[in-house]
Every structure is written in C-alpha cells, then in structure tokens.
C-alpha cells in the first residue's frame, strides 16, 4: 500500500514534470514564431520591424520610381466641373411617384427595379419630368424669409440666409475624425445649398461622455472648426433618451396598443414635481396636466442599450428633428433639397434588389418629424426590444399597412452599384461600371476592368503627358503648363531631393508611373444618383488617381476657390485645408 502509494506519487511527479516541459517547449515555440513575424529575425531580442508602410521607401518608392510631386492630376484637358448645370430653384419639389415608377416600374411587376443604368439615365437627364414647382412656394410661407433674389450668400464668417425652411442633415459617428469623416463633410459642402442646410454630427456619448470635446480638439477635425463656428456643422452628443415625446393621438391609432388598460401613477423619475401620469399602454405615458404623450424606456432598457445603436439613432433623431439621416459611408453627389422639401418627405432605400415591399435599407433615410409615421416607427422599434434593424422595422410597417407612407426608393438613387451583387442586374452596367465596392479606391493601371463599358459619349480631350513631347501640366489648375513651369517641375525632380531625400532622379515618365493620371472626372461618376454608398471599408485609403482621389481633388479645388462645384458655384466661405496625402502610395 505504502510502496504503491509512493510509486504512484513518483509517477505523478514525472507526469507533472513532463507536462511542464511540453508546455515550456510549446511556449518558446510560440514566442519565437511571433518574434520572427514581428521582427523578421530569429533572435528573440531583435528590434520590432517598422510598420510595413515605411518599409518600401528603403527599397525605392512604390509607384515605380516616379516622383509623385511631378505626377499630373489628370489627363483631361478641360474638366467640366459644372456638369449638373444651375442648382434647382430653392422651392423645387421632387415628384416621388415619378421617381418610384420610373426606377421601379409597377408595385407588383417591379419591371425596372434591376435596371439601374436606365434609372440613372432618367435621373440625370429627365429632371423636368420629376421636378416641379409647388403651388405654394415654401420660400413665401413665412414673412421672415428673405426674397430669393435678396438672400445673402455665405461668407467667411456667416452662413448666409435661406429663402425658405432650412433642411437638417444628420449623421452619427463614434471615435476620432478620420479621412472618412472629412470625405463625408466635404461631399456635403460640395453639393448642398449651404445657407439652407445644417449638418448635425451626432457623436456617441453614452459610452464616451467627452465625445464632443474630443472632436473639437481632434487635429483632423480642426480644418472644420470655422464651419462649426459659422453654424454649418453642429456637434451633438448622442445619448439614448429615456423619454421620447409623441404627437398627440398617435398611440390611439396604433393597433399594437389596442386594449391596454390605463393605470395612474406618479412619474418615478420626477418625484419632486409629482406630475400625474397615466400609463396608457406598455411604455407609453400621458401627462394628466397637459395631455402630452411620451414613450418611456424602462430602467432595464436603459441599462441594456442595443449594440446596433446607430440603427436606432436615425429613427429617434428624425422623429425629434426631421430632415434626413445618412450613414457616414454615404457620399453625397447632388443637392437633396428637392427630395427633403415636400411636407411628407418620408423615405428610405430598397434593400439591394429584394422584391419584398418591407425590405428597407436606412443608410439614407428621411422622416417628417413628430408625425404619426415617425412615432409609429420609433414605438415599434422600442416595443420589439429596441430592435431597429431596417428590415425588421420595414416588415412591421408593411404588416401594419403603413409602408406606403414610407416611400421606398430604388438603389439607383443612393447606392447605384448594390444591384450588381444580388441576382444580377438587367440592362447595362452603370457609368463607371463597378463590380465591387473596393475599386473606387484603386488607382493602378487597369485596376478597374471595363469601367467605361457603358460610356457611349465622345472621349474627353486629353493632354500629352511625359510623352515624347514631354509636355507637363502644373498641379491643380486646368491650364497647360508654361515652359517655365515645366522646367521648374523637372528641376524639382532632378535637382534638389524632396524633403525626405528620396526623390531625386528622373523626370516624370507616364509609362513608369504605377498610378498614372487618367480620364476620370466626377462628371462621369454615377451621374444622376444623389449619393454613392461606400459600404464600410473604413480603414482603406484612396490610391493616387483612383476615383476617390479624383473626387478629393474636385472637393479641394472647390473649397480652395479654384474650381466650381457641379452647379457651377464658387465657394464663398472660409478656405479649408485640403485632404492629407497618403505617403504609403509614394
Ligand atoms: C407626380 O407624378 C404622378 C405620376 O406620374 C402624376 O400623376 C402627378 O400629377 C405628379 N404630381 C405633380 C405635382 O406633378
Ligand atoms: C408634436 O406634435 C404635437 C401635436 O400633435 C404638438 O403638440 C407637440 O408640441 C409637437 N412636439 C414637438 C416636439 O414638436
Ligand atoms: C477614358 O478612356 C477609355 C480608354 O482608356 C475610353 O474607353 C473611355 O471612353 C474614356 N472615357 C472618357 C469619359 O473619355
Ligand atoms: C476670407 O478668408 C480668406 C482667408 O481664409 C481671405 O483670403 C479672404 O480675403 C476672406 N474674404 C473676405 C471677403 O473677407
């Protein structure tokens, strides 16, 4: 017994030692593999390798040895910036019925739903068919509105005057100001009617109480501070409200609340004033004194706020303020005022080319505030356990027969390439032809295959660059370079090395450039669509001469006063800093 015990103790000890040894070997192996991966060396104490974006510099620039400072911005001889013509009159309404029928077809047949090319063509060239001047122009609705001709434009310090109601644009963000925030804001400034628009940037503040201060101190956001001061951009702290006001009588008509028995109680969150409140239904109270009705979230709901906060934000914010909501990965391309001005401007987008009338996407969405519809949607989301997934809410609205009030626009209006990924489009590809959301970032030669497949227009006139004639164009403006510019540019490349000492060497040669200039212009970027949806890809950067790079140059050219926007207007506000360069592509 004793011996047996001892020998078993002994064997247990051996077992333990063996296991320890195995664990140690495994640990060393893992550490070594990690260390080789991080440092590129088998010596465990070697220094960490620098991030990969730095490494290529040591082996020469990525873009084929070409000096990016000499790279022309475009090959197009005369860029047509003002391709949309004059901005629609400030009182213009869009005819939703025409837009829906022209891009969808009939409600049951959906004959045109999958033909985005023809929808875009209609949007671009048939404005007269779907825009109209309402009988009572909104600009004359209040005596306080200035006359259309007399309204002051925006200046360095003031946002100007709007002859009519101002439209609100909302977006939501968590974290620091990245390039994508800049792209969103600049696209907004590039396209919208500035004195008649305000941009509310909702910053997640339930988890980050200092979000607004942090944004004001963010160095990437600093370029927009003059606009915060001027009132264009309003930074708002988003906190999930515990009480949401409802328009009177909205609850009574909601079938979900039929048969609830009112219970009288005093408000638990307001014990001092002891307001008398009647609980008229699950989560809905009525103030006995003034008759106002409220949605009240329970403590439990406030503790377990939804993960998909942004899904809920848009419904609540639009119910409270009205206007339109855009996800940060939506880039505006046209003036939205004609869509937002009609009194019943409640709409969202179709979920790709799903044929179900309840399958909405809410990346772009608009609601008239404090209406029966807006409060119905908010009540529904809260009742379903704070679930505001657009397709859940949409199916609910469809079941309750309310989807006709909530207009569903086709993807051509806001996300023109979404149809490429579902059951196959009908008709031709859009212009440009994208088969993948990533290609808008690519600037390499031939990276976007067949992008001009559907372009039937005359090719744009091009300039010769770095060819046998050696003609160079100055960065930034549309004029051909003078002989003096040319020699200066070549000198900059050949004579002195750049600030980082890496770019002495040959003059610019188009054929060696990995990201050569090309004939892309915003004029041919999904013309007709009100926006382009990037669909996430938050950490990507645009390669030189990619579509997004071409768009950046158009934005910066406008905001620096050198170029016009698509409506042929000059920027009259404060000069804004240009986009940063991405040295990773040098
Ligand atoms: C809007 O379009 C519909 C359908 O074509 C048409 O019946 C209606 O008269 C139009 N409304 C206005 C105000 O033009
Ligand atoms: C919402 O509409 C009701 C009338 O239905 C009105 O009494 C209330 O003041 C409005 N609330 C807001 C926030 O505009
Ligand atoms: C751009 O160039 C391609 C050929 O490289 C051509 O097919 C296309 O039509 C051109 N597009 C424009 C707008 O000129
Ligand atoms: C506006 O500010 C810019 C500098 O940002 C300045 O060059 C310009 O003269 C100013 N315009 C007016 C009208 O004050």
Give an account of the 3D structure.
The chain has 586 residues and is of the alpha/beta class. Among the domains are: 50 residues, no CATH class; 51 residues, no CATH class. It is 28% helix and 12% strand. The strands form four sheets. It has a seven-stranded mixed sheet with strand order 5-4-3-11-14-13-15, sandwiched between helices. A five-stranded antiparallel sheet has the order 6-10-9-8-7, covered by helices on one side. A two-stranded antiparallel ribbon has the order 1-2. Helix 6 packs across helix 16. It starts with a helix and ends in a 27-residue tail after the last helix. One 2-acetamido-2-deoxy-beta-D-glucopyranose binds next to loops. One 2-acetamido-2-deoxy-beta-D-glucopyranose (NAG) binds next to loops.
């Amino acid at each position: 017994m004793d011996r047996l015990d001892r020998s078993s103790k002994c064997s247990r000890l051996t077992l333990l030692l063996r296991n320890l040894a195995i664990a140690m070997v495994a640990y060393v192996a893992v550490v070594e593999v990690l260390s080789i991966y991080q440092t590129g060396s088998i010596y465990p104490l070697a220094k960490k390798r620098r991030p990969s974006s730095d490494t290529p510099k040591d082996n020469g620039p990525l873009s084929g040895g070409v000096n990016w400072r000499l790279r022309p911005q475009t090959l197009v001889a005369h860029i047509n910036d003002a391709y949309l013509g004059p901005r629609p009159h400030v009182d213009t309404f869009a005819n939703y019925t025409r837009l829906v029928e022209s891009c969808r077809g009939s409600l049951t047949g959906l004959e045109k739903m999958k033909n985005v090319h023809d929808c875009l063509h209609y949007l671009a060239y048939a404005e007269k068919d779907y825009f109209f001047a309402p009988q009572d122009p909104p600009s004359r609705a209040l005596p306080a509105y200035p006359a259309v001709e007399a309204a002051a434009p925006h200046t360095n310090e003031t946002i100007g005057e709007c002859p009519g109601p101002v439209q609100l644009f909302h977006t939501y963000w968590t974290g620091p100001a990245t390039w994508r925030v800049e792209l969103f804001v600049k696209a907004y400034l590039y396209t919208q009617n500035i004195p008649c628009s305000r941009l509310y940037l909702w910053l997640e503040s339930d988890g980050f109480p200092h979000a607004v201060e942090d944004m004001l101190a963010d160095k990437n956001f600093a370029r927009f501070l003059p606009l915060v001061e001027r009132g264009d951009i309003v930074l708002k702290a988003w906190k999930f409200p515990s009480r949401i006001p409802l328009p009177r009588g909205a609850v009574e008509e909601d079938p979900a609340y039929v048969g609830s028995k009112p219970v009288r109680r005093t408000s638990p969150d307001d014990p001092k004033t002891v307001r008398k409140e009647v609980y008229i239904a699950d989560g809905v109270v009525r103030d006995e004194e003034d008759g106002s009705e409220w949605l009240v979230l329970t403590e439990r709901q406030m503790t377990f706020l939804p993960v998909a906060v942004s899904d809920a934000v848009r419904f609540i914010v639009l119910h409270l303020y009205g206007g339109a909501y855009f996800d940060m990965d939506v880039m505006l391309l046209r003036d939205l005022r004609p869509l937002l001005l009609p009194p019943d401007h409640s709409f969202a987008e179709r979920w790709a080319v799903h044929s179900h009338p309840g399958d909405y996407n809410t990346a772009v969405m608009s609601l008239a505030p404090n209406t029966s519809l807006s409060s119905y949607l908010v009540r529904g989301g809260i009742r379903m356990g704070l679930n505001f997934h657009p397709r859940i809410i949409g199916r609910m609205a469809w079941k309750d027969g309310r989807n006709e009030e909530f207009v569903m626009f086709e993807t051509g209006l806001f996300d023109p390439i979404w149809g490429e990924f579902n059951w196959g489009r009908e008709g031709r590809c859009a212009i440009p032809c994208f088969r993948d959301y990533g290609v808008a970032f690519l600037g390499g030669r031939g990276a976007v295959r067949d992008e001009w497949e559907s372009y039937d227009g005359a090719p744009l006139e091009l300039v010769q660059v770095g060819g046998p004639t050696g003609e160079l164009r100055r960065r930034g403006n549309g004029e051909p370079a003078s002989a003096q510019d040319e020699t200066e540019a070549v000198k900059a490349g050949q004579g002195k090395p750049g600030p980082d000492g890496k770019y002495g060497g040959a003059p610019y040669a188009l054929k060696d450039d990995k990201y050569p200039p090309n004939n892309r212009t915003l004029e041919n970027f999904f013309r007709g669509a009100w926006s382009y949806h990037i669909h996430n890809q938050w950490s990507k950067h645009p390669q030189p001469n990619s579509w997004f790079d071409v768009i950046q140059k158009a934005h910066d050219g406008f905001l620096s006063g050198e170029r016009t926007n698509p409506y042929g207007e000059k920027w009259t506000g404060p000069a804004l800093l240009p986009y940063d360069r991405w040295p990773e592509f040098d």
